[in-house]
Structures
1.
Amino acid sequence: GDSVTQMEGPVTLSEEAFLTINCTYTATGYPSLFWYVQYPGEGLQLLLKATKADDKGSNKGFEATYRKETTSFHLEKGSVQVSDSAVYFCALRGQAGTALIFGKGTTLSVSS
Amino acid sequence: EPEVTQTPSHQVTQMGQEVILRCVPISNHLYFYWYRQILGQKVEFLVSFYNNEISEKSEIFDDQFSVERPDGSNFTLKIRSTKLEDSAMYFCASVPIGGGNTEAFFGQGTRLTVV
């Protein structure tokens, strides 16, 4: 079945450092890919998405590119802030109406 | 901005008791979901609901669980006889009609603690 694998955390960075969180997927067909973020004590919020190969999703300085050839959707940010400290989840949806499949989540901790 | 709302935010219950978790999805959405997240672990799919019936469910969603959309706005998850391992954060989500590339909108979650 479909699955998502993302790098284990926690990831600890200093403010203004470069961030990469790796995400790879296994799916039949052409899934849509998502990054969700969960700030402490809050629910899941969509950070960005990409719906077809070579699409780049971006939001709040974060970017991820849908790479079909490597089945990857790595999350990047050029300069992280303390306020980016959260848990980041990579997810996919295979078809309309089907459930999101999540990776295990990566905890990011940014210190000043 | 429309949002998914869940109540209560935190529920403590004794093992063996029944609990009902409530969700109000965004009003024009058609697909509804429950997920759970055991502390520190991944977000797991439980069940999806469309056109007044379950459209998909996971292995976790056994006979102890049921879902209902009793009226035009609420979407509930019932756990008949809670176990300690049911302690988790439960998230409701809804999706408008629009295909697989449409984002899911999540509620803030209900933290269920079974003692």
2.
Amino acid sequence: AQSVSQHNHHVILSEAASLELGCNYSYGGTVNLFWYVQYPGQHLQLLLKYFSGDPLVKGIKGFEAEFIKSKFSFNLRKPSVQWSDTAEYFCAVSYSSASKIIFGSGTRLSIRP
Amino acid sequence: EPEVTQTPSHQVTQMGQEVILRCVPISNHLYFYWYRQILGQKVEFLVSFYNNEISEKSEIFDDQFSVERPDGSNFTLKIRSTKLEDSAMYFCASSEQGGTNTGELFFGEGSRLTVL
């Protein structure tokens, strides 16, 4: 079945720490990959996306993600987090065989000032 | 910057009542979606819509749910007879690309539905 897994339910970091959030998707052919962020009380916003080309994609606010096809992974990274990065982060995938985006269960990121 | 707008932002209803949630997608987008997020849980796909018909729907989207594009701008989600478990945040989204190459979805701010 088409699915997305996010292994970290809640991550707590101090400011300036490095961040890596894991995301794996099930095999299903050609995929488009996304990371969305949901700040407290707000709607989902796109952080970055991968459709094709360079597997290392850069997004807004200093975030980046690397698509590793052999591992079915699309982990999100940021070298130095800020308190304002406190939010819920969702990995998402669209498969070429479907007309929708499937979301992972989300990772809540809490940053200690 | 163009955005997806949703109304109402919050609706409280009694179990068994009909509810209509409204969305105005971005004007040049052709693909429309409804998702829901029960408090503290994941964002779940409900339905995708293109060319005035449903492209795909999830198991959640049973006979109690329906979608419509009554005019050139609005995209509505109707729940015929609400249940307690329908309480959730409902997000509308639209995209330029869809179908077998679903691209970036632009989300509205959501409509919180509370069923009592």
